[in-house]
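Q: Hi! First time doing this. I have a protein sequence and I read that you can turn it into a structure. Is that right? Here it is:
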Amino acid sequence: MINELSVQELQVWANQQTIFLIDVREPAEYATGHIKGSNLMPLSQLNNYRNQIPHDLPVVVVCRSGQRSSMAAQWLASNGWNNIYNTRGGMLAWSKAGLPEER
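A: Yes, that's right. Below is the predicted 3D structure, encoded as structure tokens:
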């Protein structure tokens, strides 16, 4: 099952607990602004990173709008990961909420 987090929930989680945050956008998108501590793993190459994604932490996935991260979350679930969260609204919602971004 894929859970969803709002960007506000993600910000709280990122500050209070250990999570593994995956940004599945492309490098050029990531460079325009990303969440501190996120791991760039483009959706098109996600399988190449499978050995770097922990099974013992909550895995949160983010993209631009929530579409690609939803696909990535489904892929993770079908490949043995549990405790997966999709970020509702993606970086568009993060930016709209005025939350901090790194460049």
